[in-house]
Write a structure and sequence with these properties.
Elements lengths: L1 H7 L2 H4 L1 H24 L2 H28 L1
Helix pairs in contact: 1-3, 3-4
């Protein structure tokens, strides 16, 4: 929850395109976190771990693309 909220803060400077991409990426992250919490299995944890790495990369791409469009 906190990670999701903090990831939306740069939208104040980067605008709507970043806000939409960060919100979608964050909601997927929260959903996978809930599945991992409920399931507790190694497979769910591995999926969440790999998504977290991809999440950071995609968030940085969103920042770069939004900044280049400005």
């Amino acid at each position: 929850g906190l990670l999701f909220a903090v990831s939306l803060v740069p939208a104040l400077w980067l605008g709507t395109a970043y806000l939409i991409s960060a919100a979608i990426l964050g909601l997927v992250f929260v959903g996978l976190s809930l599945v991992t919490f409920r399931d507790g299995g190694r497979r769910a944890a591995a999926i969440l771990f790999h998504y977290s790495v991809a999440y950071l990369g995609m968030l940085f791409v969103a920042v770069a693309l939004t900044a280049s469009l400005a």
